[in-house]
Amino acid sequence: MDSRLQDLLGIELPIVQAPMAGVQLSALAVAVSNAGGLGSLPCAMLPPETMRKELTVIRAQTTRPFNVDFFCHAQPVVDPGREQAWRAALAPYYAEFGIDPASIVAGPGRLPFSAETADVLEEFAPPVVSFHFGLPPPQLLARVRRWGAKVMSSAATLEEARWLEAAGVDVIIAQGLEAGGHRGHFLSHDLSPRMGTFALLPQLVRAVRVPVIAAGGIAEQRNVAAAKALGAAGVQAGTAYLLCDEVTTSPLHRAALKGPLSHVTALTHLSTGRPTRGIVNRLMRDLGPLSADAPAFPLATAAIAPLRAKAEAQGSGDFSPLWAGQNTRGCREVPAAELTHALAAGWS
Question: What percent of the chain has pLDDT above 90?
Fold first, then answer.
């Protein structure tokens, strides 16, 4: 039995819960960690005080290892011309909902890992820290290392995996094209060479010495068994947890996940400015899931936010980010511990 991941991270089961900003806080992370897996708290959208509050809850409710996750993108410079084109593309929807575009204030949406974030983390010394979109600057990564944390990061290509290993990460997450949420690529924004999980995984396993976790399409025992057979040291599941008791998935999002078209997903950057997989909605159908007008990540969010709010108030997910991977078959309305143990059964 391959126990590299368990030995390295101090967990009982080789199951990592994917951090899912916007649909979870500490409750899901605690439940998965207490079940023997590695629970994760998504922190990319949390202000410092909220992050401190959620970490306090985690420390109070589990003695098991847990993970905290951050984005480490470079903040873009606002391009007025691109912003204007984006607002023009959305103008018919603003008119439909009676929204004055001049009232919409542009904002960053999501902030990268920073010294201020590290200050909060040092109070709690989380045992595992994961990053999306590469790694933070060396001086910030060194701060994480100083309290003994293990570091994980996502790779969408073989080149990214080799880059991460050279930078000293402890675990690489092989993110296949099937995965829900934001793509973790960072060396290139070209989507054409992206591979599915079970094509990418064995290439990474052969190329690097550190443990590799399979992510993307992992929602059932058979997926876990397949990942193990291809050399994964563990698996990361996200979409499978979206209907669990401990998540904060909205009623609209839950309905979409349980609906007949939950399998119809696409990569889109309309909601945030960076490719993200979600269930196809009206905005994606009308504009096409990928639009050259959308501002760079994370600046696209501000212009979409009022449309989302208006539509959701009417019971519609037409402008909502209904994030989900391609495999929604494993989504079940059960306690997260039960799902964690069910997935782990595929490893034995």
Answer: 88
pLDDT of residue 107: 67
Q: Please answer whether residues 197 and 178 qualify as being in contact, where contact means their C-beta atoms are separated by less than 8 angstroms.
A: yes
Residue 66 CA to residue 16 CA, distance in Å, equals 9
Query: Percent helix, strand, coil in the chain (nearest 5)?
Result: 40, 15, 45
Residue of 296, 267, 268, 295 lying closest to 86 (CA atoms): 295
DSSP labels, 140-180: HHHHHHHTT-EEEEEESSHHHHHHHHHTT-SEEEEE-TT--
Provide the H-helix boundaries in the chain. Answer: 4-9, 26-34, 48-61, 80-97, 115-124, 138-146, 158-166, 197-207, 221-229, 251-258, 282-287, 301-313, 336-344
Q: Cα 297 to chain center, whole Å?
A: 14
- How far out from the chain centre does Cα 331 lie? 16
Q: Angle at CA 175, nearest 5°, toward 10 and 166?
A: 70
pLDDT of res. 200: 97
Encode 17-31: b = buried (16+ Cβ within 10 Å), e = exposed: bbbbbebbbbbbbbb
pLDDT digit string (tens) for 86-143?
999 999 999 999 999 988 887 666 889 999 999 999 999 999 999 999 999 999 999 9
Q: Could you tell me which of 316, 266, 276, 280 has the C-alpha nearest to residue 300?
A: 276
Using CB atoms within 10 A of its CB, is residue 64 exposed (0-12), middle (13-18) or buried (19+)?
Answer: buried
- pTM assigned to the model: 0.95
Number of Cβ within a 10 Å radius of residue 260: 6
Let me know: does 156 contact 183? Beta carbons within 8 Å: yes
Q: What 8-state DSSP symbol labels residue 120?
A: H
Q: Write out pLDDT tens, residues 276-329.
A: 999 999 999 999 999 888 998 998 999 999 999 999 999 999 999 999 999 998
pLDDT per position as a tens digit, 194-216: 899 999 999 999 999 999 999 99
Q: Which position has the higher pLDDT, 335 or 83?
A: 335
Helix 197-207 vs helix 158-166: angle between axes, to the nearest 10 degrees?
40
234 forms beta bridges with 213
